[in-house]
């Protein structure tokens, strides 16, 4: 893009400018130092330490089991690698739903113990009081509406959300409320393109989509999915940029064969 904003450090102000100039925002998850370093050096604008770590790092079926201590461990590993991107960390399930004081305590722990730049939490009106309290304490909050994986047992399925008018209206009023109380950005997950377009056009804050079409201000994917580390997950919205499953598998098979054949280490690889 011609007049691309290329800051040495991505801040909330920079994201606002990107939206007003129509420059798309790139966002990707990371959970550890080595991947975060590669992703940051490749110029991604926002790195999300997502609670999807529960799935892709720990092998759980849902995002529910991951703990605050585990999120802080992942986030502090990421933070040590990042020089440019804004780092946002998910508040995990069970650390903000019971009351707003607990929510603030959890957000403070993330900011203090990991050095992250912002937190993300799922939900609309039910999360309002918690989000307000966190923002009042000076912690930037990214909202998350549409498919909210922490409520998977309420939905019962990972299918597209807000296709019906009533749910779409709730999503619109929730997104307006999140902007009003001061969220700096909102993730919209797995909702119809038309609805995401409407929300994006009517709000000033950057809207980041995952399975929300092309009319949003930016896109986010789970890094393990876009790198092809997870063969069993193929939703329509996912574009795979690499087949890491095959690449790593082939490398490991070759390494194992070389050991068994007595080919590794060779003369030049020993002292
Ligand atoms: O946890 C996560 O990775 C997320 C993204 C899917 C937006 O919340």
Based on CA inertia axes, which overall geometry fits?
globular
Provide the number of structural domains. 2
Which fold name corresponds to the CATH topology of the largest domain? TIM Barrel
CATH class of the largest domain: Alpha Beta
Low-confidence runs? none
Number of strands: 8
Protein described:
By secondary structure, this protein is an alpha/beta fold. The chain folds into two domains: 12-240, Phosphoenolpyruvate-binding domains (TIM Barrel); 244-271. Helix content is 41%, strand content 14%. It contains eleven helices and eight strands. It has helices at residues 12-21, 33-41, 53-56, 68-79, 100-114, 128-136, 152-155, 165-180, 193-202, 223-226, 244-260, and strands spanning 25-29, 46-49, 86-90, 118-122, 141-146, 185-189, 207-210, 218-221. It has an eight-stranded parallel barrel with strand order 1-2-3-4-5-6-7-8, surrounded by seven helices. Helix 6 links the parallel strand 4 (118-122) and strand 5. Helix 5 (100-114) packs across helix 6 (128-136). The longest helix has 17 residues, at 244-260. The protein is globular, with a radius of gyration of 20 Å. The model has no long low-confidence stretch (mean pLDDT 97). 3-methyl-2-oxobutanoic acid binds next to strand 6.
């Amino acid at each position: 893009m011609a007049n691309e904003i290329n800051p040495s450090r991505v801040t909330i102000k920079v994201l606002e400018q990107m939206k007003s100039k129509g420059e798309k925002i790139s966002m990707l998850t990371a959970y550890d130092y080595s991947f975060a370093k590669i992703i940051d050096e490749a110029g991604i604008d926002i790195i999300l330490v997502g609670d999807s770590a529960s799935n892709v790092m720990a092998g759980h079926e849902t995002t529910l089991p991951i703990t605050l201590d585990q999120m802080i461990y992942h986030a502090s590993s990421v933070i040590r690698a990042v020089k440019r991107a804004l780092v946002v960390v998910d508040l995990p399930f069970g650390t903000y739903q019971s009351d707003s004081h607990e929510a603030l305590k959890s957000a403070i722990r993330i900011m203090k113990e990991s050095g992250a730049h912002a937190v993300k939490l799922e939900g609309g009106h039910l999360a309002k009081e918690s989000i307000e309290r966190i923002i009042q304490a000076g912690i930037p909050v990214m909202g998350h509406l549409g498919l909210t994986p922490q409520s998977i047992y309420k939905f019962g399925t990972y299918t597209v959300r807000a296709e019906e008018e009533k749910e779409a209206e709730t999503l619109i009023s929730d997104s307006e409320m999140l902007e009003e109380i001061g969220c700096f950005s909102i993730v919209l997950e797995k909702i119809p393109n038309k609805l995401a377009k409407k929300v994006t056009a009517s709000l000033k804050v950057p809207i980041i989509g995952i399975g929300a079409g092309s009319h949003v201000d930016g896109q986010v994917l789970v890094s393990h999915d876009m790198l092809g580390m997870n063969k069993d997950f193929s939703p329509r919205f996912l574009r795979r940029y690499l087949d890491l499953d095959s690449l790593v598998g082939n490398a490991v098979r070759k390494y194992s064969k070389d050991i068994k054949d007595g080919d590794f280490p060779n003369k030049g690889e020993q002292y």
